[in-house]
Amino acid sequence: MIRARRSRIVATLGPASSSPEMIVTLARAGADVFRLNFSHGAHETHAAVYAAIREAEKTVGRPLGILADLQGPKLRVGKFAEGPVMLKAGQAFRFDSDPTPGDETRVHLPHPEILTAMRPGATLLLDDGKLRMTVTDAGPGYANTTVVNGGKLSERKGVAVPDVVIPMSPLTAKDREDLAFALRLGVDWIALSFVQAPEDMAELRRIVEGRAAVLAKIEKPQALKVLGPILDLCDGVMVARGDLGVEMAPEEVPVAQKEILRAARERGIPVIVATQMLESMINSPTPTRAEASDVANAVYEGADAVMLSAESAAGDYPEESVSMMNRIIERVERDPRWPELMQAEQRHDDDDADVLVVAAAGAAKSGSTKCLVAFTTTGATARRLARERPLQPVLALSPDINAVRRMTLCWGIEPRVSAQPDSLEVVTTDASSKALDLGLVAPGERLLVVAGTPFGAPGAANLLRLAHAPAPSRRR
Prior knowledge:
Elements (H helix, E strand, L loop, with lengths): L7 E6 L6 H10 L3 E5 L5 H18 L4 E5 L15 E3 L4 E5 L9 E3 L3 H6 L5 E4 L4 E9 L2 E8 L1 E3 L5 E2 L12 H13 L3 E4 L5 H11 L4 E6 L2 H5 L1 H5 L4 E5 H7 L5 H15 L3 E4 L14 H12 L4 E4 L1 H4 L4 H16 L4 H5 L9 H12 L5 E7 L4 H8 L6 E5 L2 H6 L6 E5 L6 H14 L8 E7 L8 E8 L8
Parallel strand pairs: 1-2, 1-16, 2-3, 3-12, 5-6, 12-13, 13-14, 14-15, 15-16, 17-18, 17-20, 18-19
Antiparallel strand pairs: 4-10, 5-9, 7-8, 7-11, 8-9, 20-21
């Protein structure tokens, strides 16, 4: 089953979509990667869903990726003695380390890291940004604030600090347990929430030790200030616009999205645009026109993937949501202006593999070249090709099923398991035969093959060959 599009679809699984039958349905509708949200659900539930995805993979005949999304720290206020309080603009309000239930003048903040980081002028946002406060004074165990935007404040509502780096790891004790479990399952991608600094991703990489690809969710303004160093430690990145939109002004989020997309594409790492893409389809069989345009704009920008959250996890129309996203992507990619609009400046490393890949992508611009085939051990050669955004499909062949599944998130790549070639003749015959089997070329059509010698050595792409798909009588 070959996709008729290059941008990929990530579908979150949940109560509406976790049955084996629905997972197969969503894969056939267009889902390439399934997201397991570890903010919800027991380990036993995730294990059952994981097994169902692997079975669905066999049923649909194409690899399916699995992304484990760690919850990250949930910063919340404490309890109130007599229920919710009403805060008015201009009034004073105190956050402190005293666990006594709060009132309309103060509340416990059970996160000493926040109180330690507070300074006059800092902003506190509560309840998804509905309430805003400015710190007037702070010291050991307290922060005094003035309410800027008031409203009702209930206990356990979330707290965000958009302009201060909080000295805490994004990996909580729960996250570490979930991470160990996800790695035992064998997930393909790990997403880290609330990344603030490169050290956060470095810590995750040390724990994962190559057992999965690692992805940073950019949802803190602080991360944008050190975006380059963060991405240099990532295998992928997610533009998590929901939480990012809480801590940034609405007009800043589209600009941040483009900045993240550009930086990720320069590095050749897959980038997911996420949150509220088809939000109205939680309860409606069709999206708003604005939502359709939102998905389309991400595709025009060259995003590797777009993601469904509650639409596929808990909504009334999970299949329709995936199908709609699939249709929007396919329509954009039929636009004659799409190739021009989604191209971006590329940054190429000055090594032999990149020179070869650029040459392959350039040669493939010939109208008679129908397909690019990359023999790759780790997926790096195929990702280099995807960074060039060739309009021909890229068939990535690897003997490593883990590498194949990780590539399901990458733009334009059709990854498949294949035996490691042991000669130049096998490289050519396997590439042309498999491309023909999958319908990527017709007999006699031209394809370009990228491989490396010695065979099986990671990162050794140094061979570019021209081949033609064989006639049926000539195939091995």
